[in-house]
Amino acid sequence: MNVPAKGFVVPLIERDEIIGELRDRFDRVAESGGHIVLVCGEAGIGKSSVIDAFLSGLAPAVPRAIGLCDPLHTPRPLGPVRDICHGLFGTGLHDNDEARFFEGFIGRAGALRAPAVLVIEDLHWADQRSLDWLNYIGRRISQLPILLIGSFRDDEVEAAHPLRTALGGIPAARKSQLFLPPLSIEAIRQIASGSSYSAERLTEITGGNPFFVTEIINHRQEAGIVPVSVADAVNARINALPAAMRDLLELAACCPGEVSLDLLQAVTGGAAASLLPDVTDRHFLIGSGRHFKFRHELARLVAYERLSPPARSDAHAKIMAALLEHETDPPLDMIVHHAQGADSRDVVLDYAPRAAERAATLGAHREAAMHLEAALKYVDHAAPELAADIYERWAHEAGLALSIDDDVIAARKKAAALWKQIGQPERVGENLRWLSRMHWYRGEAEAAQRYLQDAIAVLENELPSSAKARAYALRAQYFMLQDNMPDAIHWARKALDIADQVGDTETRAHALNTAGSAALFRGDPQGEADLRESLEIARRHGFHVEAARVFTNLSECLIEMGALQAAEDLIEEGIAFDTEHDLDAWTFYLIGRKAQLRFEQDRYAEASAIARNVLTRDNQTLLMQMPAMIILARSKLRLNESGALEDLDAALAGAVKIGEPQYLVPLHIARIEAAVLAGDAPSAAAHIDWIAELDPSLLSPRKRGEFLFWSVLAGHDIAGQDRADLPEGFAAFVTRAFERAHEHFDGLGAAYLAAWSLAARGAPEDIRRADDLFERIDAMAARKALRLRFPDLIASAGLPTLQRGKYRDARQHPYGLTRKEQIVLRFLANGSSNKAIARELSRSRRTVENHVSSILSKMRAKNRMEVVLRMQSEPWLLADDQHER
Question: What domains sit in the chain, N to C, each tagged with a CATH number?
Fold first, then answer.
C-alpha cells in the first residue's frame, strides 16, 4: 500500500490581531494585575493554534503551564488544575489536599517574581471542581501576577452550562473574551494555493473552519473530488496508512486527552515506539515528551467511530488491563473510564467507589456522583453491603452537587432498606435523618418531621453514636427554626452529651450553635458563650459552613438584643470569613443581616442600598434572600418610597412559603407599622390577630415588645397580651410611660422608636421634637404620619412643610473613609498597583501607600486581596460620585 506524503497543516492566517491582544494583555499584568482571557469559537477554529503561537512568542524565561480538560465519561477532578500546578510548581499531580490547589495556589502564585501564563484548554469539558477553582482564582486574580487563558467551544456552552455560572462570578473588569471567526475566502485561497481544490468550493464545504480545510486538503484525492464530510477526509487518510498504524490510531482514540508512550507500548506489545514517528509526521498525533494526543478531538472521534462495538470494548479492556498491571499509582478515573467502555462489571464496582472517594476528598462532588452512578449500573450484582454503600454515597454526592430530586430520595430509601436488611441500625437511622434533611430542603416539612421521628425511633435504644447525636441535633435545629426554644435547647443538650461521648466534634459545634442561638434569643447570656465556643471549634477544625452559621445566628441575636456595636463587629468578621472561603450564599445572607443592622441604626438609605445589592445577585435561594427582602421593604416603607407595600407583600409571600416564624413575625409587625403610617388602623387588625394567635413562647421578648408597641399606636386593645420580660423601653411604652420609653430608646440610639414615644404623648412640643428626630433620620413616612395623626396640632407644633432632601447617611462612607481614600479604594477594587495609582492620581507612592494602609485599617482587612473580595460582595461601598482627583 502506498503511504501518502506527510500531512499539511494550515498556517496561522488572520489571527495576528488576536495574538496581539494576548500579548498586550500579558504586558499589562505586571502593573495592573492578573487577567483572564477566554478564547472561544467552534471546534476546529484554531483556538489551540492561536494559544500555541502566543506562547511560542514569549521569552523563554516566562513561567507557563498548561492544563487539559478531557472528554472522559467522568472528568478528572481538578485535572487541569493539577496539570498547571505540576507545570508551574513541580507538584500537584497526585496530591489529594484540595487546599493546596486553592489557598495554597494563591500563596505560591502571589510569590512569583515575574508574571506567568496559565492555559486551560477545552473548558467546556472541565469538571465542576476545576470550574470552582476558575471562579475562586478569577475573583482574586487582580492581586496575582498571572495571565490565565482559557479556551472553550462557545457553541457548546449554553446559558445554563456550569462554565457560564463559574465565569459569571468573576468581575467583568478582570476577564475578556476573544472570538475566533472563520477564515475568509481570501485566506482559504492563499492556503489552497497549489492544491487541486478551489477556494470557493473549500469555503462552501468547510465554512472557513481551519481544521476542516486542513483535512480536506490532506485528502489528496483526484482533482476536483471533494469529500462530502470531514469524517470522510480523515477516514480516507487513515485508510491509506499501513494496518499497524491504523490499529495504533484506533487504539489511541479510546483515550481522550493525552496517552503516555508507556501505556501505548504496553498495549501494543512494544510496537508503538516504532510507529509513532510516522504517525506524528503525518499530523494525526502530536507529541509532548512521552505523551501523545490527537491533533484535534474531531479527528480522535472519527478514529474512534471506526471501531465496531465489540472492537471498542476489546480495545478498552486491553487499555484497562495495562493500566491495572503496569501503573504503580493507576489513575482511578481512567480505569473507570475504560472499565465502562469495556463493560467490565467487577472493575467498575471495585474502582468507581474508590474514584468517587478521591473526587469527594478534593471537593469534586459532581464527579464523585458520576463515578458512583457508573457503579449503580451494576449495583444489582453487588453484595448487599456494597450496594447499600453505593446507594448511600451516590445520594449524598448527587444531593450536594446536582439536585435533591426523586431519584436521590429513592436512593436514600433503598440504602435505608438494605442497611435494615443487613442489620445495621445506625446506618438506617443516618439515612432516615438524611431523608428528613432532604425533604426539609425541598420545603416538605411534614415529610421531614416524619423521617426524623423514624430516625430517632430506630436509634433511640441503640448505643451512643454519631448517627444518634446528629439526629438529635437536627431535631433541635427544627425546633429552633419554629421558635420553640425550650425544646430546641433540650434536644441540643442531648446531642451534645452523645457527641462528647463519641468524640464527634462537628456535631458538637452544630449542637452548641443551636443551643446557644435558642438560649440567646430568649435572653439567656449563656447562649453567647455556647455560640462563641461553636465558632472556635468550627474555625479550628475547618467546618466552614458551621462557622458561617454561627456568624449568622449570633449576629441576629445581638441585633435582637440591641447590642448593635457587638453585632457590627461580628458581622464584619463574618462577611470577611464567608468571602474568604467563597461561601456566597452565607455571605449574602449575612450581608442581609448587615442591612438589618443598618435598619436598626436608623440608617435606612444605607440599609436599602445593601439589601438591593443582595437581591440583584444570581443563584440565591429564597431562604438566603429573605433578610434582604424584609429589610428592603421595611426601609422603603420608612423612607416613603413607592412600592413599599408591594415589596412587603412579596416578602410575606416568601416567608409563608418557608413557614418559619423568624421571617413571618417581623413582616406581620411591619404590616401593622404600615397601617399606622398610613393612618389606616383597621388594616392592621388581621396582622395583629395573626400574631396574637401564636403561642407566646414563639415570640422573643423583643418581638413581643415591637408587636405591642405598634399595636398601641394602631389603637388596638392589648389588655390580654403577655407582657412578661419585655425589654425596658417597650415595657414603658405599653404601660403608657411614654417619657420613660423615650429616654430609654434615646439612650440606646434608637431614634425612630424614641421619636414615636414622644409623639405618643401628643403634646405640641413633643410632636415637633418627634418631627425633628424623624427628619434627622429621613423617616419621611413617619413625618407624613404625624401630620395625618395630629392634623389639629400642625400649626401649634410648628410643623414645617415637608421637603425631601438627600439621604443624610448616604453622604458618609460606612467605614469612615475620606474622599481621597474612597478614590484610592476604587483603584484598589480594580486591582491597580500602588505605583499605577500614584501615577494616575499624580501623587507620590508613599502617599498612596499611606492611603492604602488607612483603608485596610478602617475596613479591618488583612491585605489588599481581602479588600478586593469585599468590594465584589459589597459594591455599594464604592459611591458613584467618587471620581474627583
Answer: 16-181 (3.40.50.300), 186-237 (no CATH), 238-335 (1.10.10.10), 370-560 (1.25.40.10), 578-809 (1.25.40.10), 813-877 (1.10.10.10)
